[in-house]
């Protein structure tokens, strides 16, 4: 499976060339010696120089030191990985006129928007220094938004425009200003290299790592946010894709923020959590439905920093995952990996009242596994049911240093058909059910799908979040293509029919296979306005034809799922593979999201406008 980025402090440190932390400290101090010597040479009269000048001078010395000690090295990429590579900002909206098929007349106006990594400064580089090597992992890269605007004109015809833009986090602004890779990779590599990268990043820029904001896009109270779980959400102007700044809920939330907050059924409050490498490891927060205030916050007193990526909600409860993919700074300073999946470790699922605290969580021990994305959770009598995609191991953080990374990823995608491979180390991801009895404490767990398709990136009709749903949709891994690329590629979409799951071995699955060499990302469910059934709607997705190097957006009728897409829109620009997408049903009115459309015979088309409206209220 592919995953979103995990960057609370994310790295995998192994086999340091400097074997103990004491040696590392000695080495670090000796490396800083030239800098310290330079500082000693500073005339004493500088004491009278304004503080800002001293600070600027010190920072420049740190930059000089870093640039002289750390050398950036380009990564080699395989042609099969080409669409993971970045694109440039187009800078202006472009009309989309190459449309095959017909956009349904009852399709909602709005914006289909997707987030994903688009490395700008150093994403495809590693560093080499006296401390060893450090590099990013494949999910790294500054977040870029790709948006397709659907505007219905007065004559009933559709006007389509496309735009893209980087999410301008504070750290991206710094690197843009310096116009050079500045943050040292602190993701994987030798422990001393990672630790010194953290230190130098913090001293130079006030942050240990980049704020990438590259994972998801969500709406709350009519406002739109790009988010990755290591930082606060970035508010976005949905019309222009400009970044408006950090959302700290009026100063009440100053820690990481999950990329998958959930609207609580009924109240419309936003349930979210923040996972941090330092205590408190896990705090849950509930934001008012108007987004103005944090109405509840609780430290769940985790004993470890579990890389919990998603959270579930039911009518009354929050559902918490505590699985043994952990961040451990102490482990890093002892020369081990900062992020590690421990298949021997405990796994538990917590169910807590919406406004509960650490004492009111009811914990259920479950079989150890790896879960990133929840499909849905709901209550059924005394039971809380949780559905999610589950694999035997984690695609994050990747292999130990020295191991062939390409081979490591490839073999784990191949595990299904390779009987000699340890299936406990497979990325193969299946839909899974936990039934948690709140009265007896009993847990029943089972697979909902078999070994025919590996899936992830679930989506449902969001009007059913927290309620029993009959359908879910997901992206299907193309195992062969993923093997070749050593990166996850999704060659199709799936519709799961849950029905009465108690009486079935596996749930029914429909498969929408994409053409050869074509892969999707950011798929989202679009509910039909006024729809009466749960699957009244469409699945929309970005797809890329690697043979033609052409990106498109497709719309698939959810009720006729295996059929050809009802419409295929060819985009004027390449859209790299990324993470999560969402359809924001907003009314497009008089203001124009594309004031400066690019002219061109291919792209010429009358424009539309956007007027923000609150998203349809969930039931
Ligand atoms: Fe995710």
TrEMBL record:
- Identify the stretch(es) annotated as Disordered: 594-619
The entry's Fe cation-binding residues are: 260, 309, 373, 580
Basic residues: compositionally biased ranges = 595-606
List the taxonomic lineage: Eukaryota, Viridiplantae, Streptophyta, Embryophyta, Tracheophyta
Is Ligase a UniProt keyword of this protein?
Answer: no
| Cofactor binding, per record | Binds 1 Fe(2+) ion per subunit.
Can you say what this protein is called? Answer: Carotenoid 9,10(9',10')-cleavage dioxygenase 1-like
Annotated family? Belongs to the carotenoid oxygenase family.
Q: What GO biological process terms are annotated to this protein in UniProt?
A: carotene catabolic process
Q: Which domain of life is it from?
A: Eukaryota
User: Which cellular component appears as one GO term in the record?
Assistant: chloroplast stroma
Does the keyword field hold Isomerase?
no
A GO molecular function term, named singly, is: carotenoid dioxygenase activity
The species this protein was found in: Tagetes erecta
Which UniProt key words apply to this protein?
Dioxygenase, Iron, Metal-binding, Oxidoreductase
List the cofactors.
Fe(2+)
